[in-house]
Design a protein that fits this description.
Number of strands: 15
Structural class: alpha+beta
CATH class of the largest domain: Alpha Beta
Shape: globular
Order of helices and strands: HEEEEEHHHHHHHEEHEEHEEEEEEH
Strand content: 15-25%
CATH topology of the largest domain: Beta-lactamase
Helix content: 25-40%
Number of domains: 2
Largest sheet: 8 strands, antiparallel
Radius of gyration: 20 Å
Distance between the termini: 10 Å
Length: 352
């Protein structure tokens, strides 16, 4: 096939919106979107927003309805509705670390300096161990606590229970279960430990808030994005960034473009490549894991930020594609959601 020269377009205040190129299987994309957002509503799960960016322009977007809950009446979602990231925020945390690594302010291979970790195992944990979720800490990442109450869920205790006022303190207090580096175990606690270290480097909550805005969100034009902090002033980077679907797509587009935004280099190309450094595969979802990013369907070159209830950001450089899906899908139905999103991705031709 002729080599296609990719026009590196970056969005201004808003994404440019165009129709599909003729190489795209448009029928398959629209059929999938109709199934996710049709009037009947999908019994498997509720899709709230979807944005598809091909070659730097939005080619499809769809919005659904927030269901009424005890917290509010619900209502229509649109391109200006801010929605929760859940664990997609972990990949945003990866970018924040990368900005400081680029400045030479973080040594990935030196033990992180945490006073409570005086025992030999924890004292040897490095930033790269934390970023790869290979710290060996005893943290139970389980979103369903069974009725008998005999399973402990550290993530629920940390985010919603006794640990919520100081998430990093809760996570730092976990004991060592395995030698650092030896074993992969996905943990929201680990991300919040990283966030507390970033906060110490940058300086308190206000400084961290400014850092996130000025160094990442503002350059990308993510004007809707809001990070959430705990009472101790730590960014809860495991779970809490709120933004519109088009703004989450901007974040994905930064990684699609190798860490560049226009003529600015936000992240080094080598930092972005750590998001493709797949070193584990989840038996639960079939996706691979790198450094605070997933690898969609265990293909290292396809980066993905995944969150609870079906939050998905998929970046496929070979197709010059970014796909965002936000919604409320139960754990049991997420394999079905992922199959449908894979179908959307595969409707686009590989261009390089």
């Amino acid at each position: 096939a002729a080599h296609v020269v990719i026009d590196r377009v970056f969005p201004g205040d808003d994404w440019e919106r165009v129709d599909f190129e003729e190489t795209v299987n448009a029928g398959r994309v629209d059929e999938t979107l109709d199934a996710l957002f049709g009037d009947r509503g999908d019994p498997s799960g509720i899709s709230l927003a979807m944005v598809v960016v091909h070659r730097g322009r939005v080619v499809r977007e769809r919005y659904g309805r927030q269901p009424a809950t005890m917290f509010g009446p619900g209502g229509p979602v649109d391109r200006d509705t801010t929605l929760i990231s859940w664990s997609m925020a972990k990949s945003i945390t990866h970018a924040l670390v990368g900005i400081l690594v680029k400045e030479g302010r973080i040594d990935l291979d030196a033990p992180v300096n945490i006073a409570e970790w005086s025992d030999p195992a924890r004292a040897s944990i490095t930033m790269s161990d934390l970023l790869r979720m290979r710290d060996g800490l005893d943290f139970v990442e389980d979103y369903v606590v069974d009725e008998t109450g005999d399973t402990r869920s550290d993530v629920i205790t940390m985010l919603f229970g006794d640990g919520a006022s100081d998430v990093a303190r809760y996570a730092r207090a976990r004991s060592s279960l395995r030698a650092p580096g030896s074993f992969w175990s996905y943990s929201s606690g680990t991300t919040n430990i990283i966030c507390s270290l970033l906060g110490e480097l940058v300086g308190g909550r206000d400084e961290m808030s400014s850092f996130i805005r000025d160094r990442l969100f503002a350059p990308l034009g993510m004007t809707s994005a809001v990070p959430r902090f705990d009472e101790a002033g730590t960014f809860i980077g495991s779970s809490y960034v709120y933004a519109t679907a088009p703004d989450f797509a901007r974040f994905g587009y930064l990684y699609l473009r190798g860490g560049r935004w226009g003529d600015r280099s936000i992240l080094s190309d080598s930092w972005v490549s750590t998001a493709r450094d797949m070193h584990a595969t989840s038996s639960e979802n079939g996706h691979g894991y790198s450094w605070h990013w997933w690898n969609w369907n265990s293909r290292p070159e396809t980066m993905a930020a995944l969150g609870y209830e079906g939050q998905r950001l998929i970046i496929d450089p070979a197709r010059d594609l970014v796909v965002v899906h936000l919604g409320k899908w139960s754990a049991e139905t997420q394999p079905e959601l992922d199959r449908r999103l894979t179908s959307v991705v595969e409707s686009f031709a590989v261009t390089e």
